[in-house]
Design brief:
With about 60 residues, the protein is α+β, with helices and mostly antiparallel strands. It contains 1 helix and 2 strands. A hairpin with a 5-residue loop joins strand 1 and strand 2. The chain is flat. InterPro entries: PA1571-like (IPR054635).
Length: about 60
């Protein structure tokens, strides 16, 4: 997924040794608990942002 596409774009596959492996970062929820950030969380956030993307008006 990319907001900009180019013929030079290279896809780099990410290989995790364990599917449940955390990304090494966390957020603090509303109750003060530390919640590990998962790849699914990041993918969902990216999908939401892409849905809200507004195409710039064309310049004359």
């Amino acid at each position: 997924m990319s907001l900009q596409h180019s013929s030079d774009d290279k896809v780099i596959e990410v290989i995790r040794t364990r599917p449940d492996q955390t990304l090494g970062c966390s957020i603090i929820d509303k109750d003060g608990r530390e919640v590990p950030i998962t790849e699914d969380m990041i993918q969902q956030a990216c999908s939401e942002l892409e849905k809200r993307l507004v195409k710039p008006a064309e310049q004359e």
